[in-house]
Specification:
- With 294 residues, this protein is α/β, with parallel strands linked by helices.
- It has two domains: 8-211, Spore Coat Polysaccharide Biosynthesis Protein SpsA, Chain A; 220-293, no CATH class.
- It contains eleven helices and ten strands.
- It has helices at residues 21-29, 49-63, 77-87, 106-117, 150-155, 169-174, 185-195, 221-233, 241-256, 261-274, 282-293; strands spanning 8-14, 36-43, 66-72, 92-95, 101-102, 122-132, 138-142, 146-148, 165-168, 199-211.
- Strands 1, 2, 3, 4, 5, 6, 7, 8, 9 and 10 form a ten-stranded mixed beta sheet that branches.
- β1, α1 and β2 form a beta-alpha-beta unit.
- α1 runs parallel beside α2 and α9 (241-256) packs antiparallel against α10 (261-274).
- The relative contact order is 0.12.
């Protein structure tokens, strides 16, 4: 009997996550949505990640509609995701970080929302994230119930966690996949897809547990800023370019205030000089509170 539920591709790119990847895989195995293919690509790990993954192969072959695993030299995250995309046979594509944990109903909720809304020009569904540390202690939650398009993506005023999205695979293919020359591969793709007129849906349900540790790319603020500014520059003719640039400067300032308040203030000043109206934003107010009271 043919499975009526769309095939969902879960793609796990792994790089030096020997301490986490087994738990990530187990959380995919434990999903209450049956029609899943799992693709794992180890991107040249120098630790024992490959050995850990290989031990999981029998369980994965038994559980999933299709399972593929490969390991090779390091090529970078975007190239790895493009390989998974090319290999994928699923209707929906969901990148999953190899140090995150998925709630058991994560795939089902996203797939159901996509199936119900795909005729409404929805190209992807985001879920909320619960942030935890290495001791599994809860830090905070983020997420919102909303629908948004290019302007919101461009201004970065919606919660768009790359590790918590499920996309219609054809839409990623339509924009040419992930750009190997861009560090923030997800933001690049979200802009490309929404710029074609597609929208995104978001739910506030916390269905991904995101580990905060020093290896997270998001902790490397300067790398993030360089990548964001490069991506935004492609849309410099857009009427909202200055606004978008200042919004991203403020986001950069929020990151910096954790380690250097002086630099955070400098970036906040740059944002206001570039687009003075940014001082009326919630982001600017929150930054001021952090700088004054934390």
């Amino acid at each position: 009997m043919k499975n009526e539920n769309p095939l969902v591709t879960i793609a796990i790119p792994c790089y030096n996550h020997v301490n986490y990847v087994e738990e990530t895989i187990k959380s995919v195995i434990g999903q209450n949505y049956e029609n899943i293919e799992l693709i794992i690509i180890d991107d040249g790990s120098s630790d024992d990640s490959v050995k850990v993954i290989e031990q999981m192969i029998p369980l994965c072959k038994k559980r999933f509609a299709r399972f593929e695993f490969r390991h090779r030299e390091n090529k970078g995250l975007s190239t790895t995701l493009n390989e998974a995309l090319e290999w994928s046979k699923g209707e929906y594509f969901s990148p999953t970080a190899s140090d995150d944990i998925l709630a058991m109903d994560k795939v089902k909720i996203q797939a159901d929302l996509l199936s119900k809304n795909i005729k409404n020009n929805i190209a992807g569904v985001f879920v909320g994230v619960a942030y935890i540390d290495n001791n599994y202690d809860f830090i905070k939650k983020r997420g919102e119930n909303t629908t948004f398009g290019f302007k919101e993506v461009f201004l970065r005023n919606k919660f768009m966690p790359g590790q918590a999205v499920m996309l219609v695979k054809d839409k990623i293919v339509e924009v040419g996949g992930y750009n190997p020359n861009i560090k923030i591969e997800d933001f690049y793709v979200f802009l490309k897809i929404s710029n074609l007129g597609y929208n995104f849906l978001s739910t506030d349900k916390s269905l991904v547990y995101y580990r905060r540790h020093e290896d997270n790319l998001s902790s490397k603020s300067e790398i993030m800023w360089d990548a964001v500014s490069e991506i935004l520059l492609e849309y410099k003719e857009d009427n909202n370019y200055k606004h978008a640039l200042s919004r991203s400067m403020l986001i950069h300032a929020h990151d910096l205030q954790l380690t250097t308040k002086k630099e955070a203030v400098n970036w906040a000043l740059k944002a206001t000089v570039n687009y003075p109206k940014v001082i009326f934003s919630k982001s600017f107010l929150k930054l001021c509170i952090k700088l004054c009271f934390k």
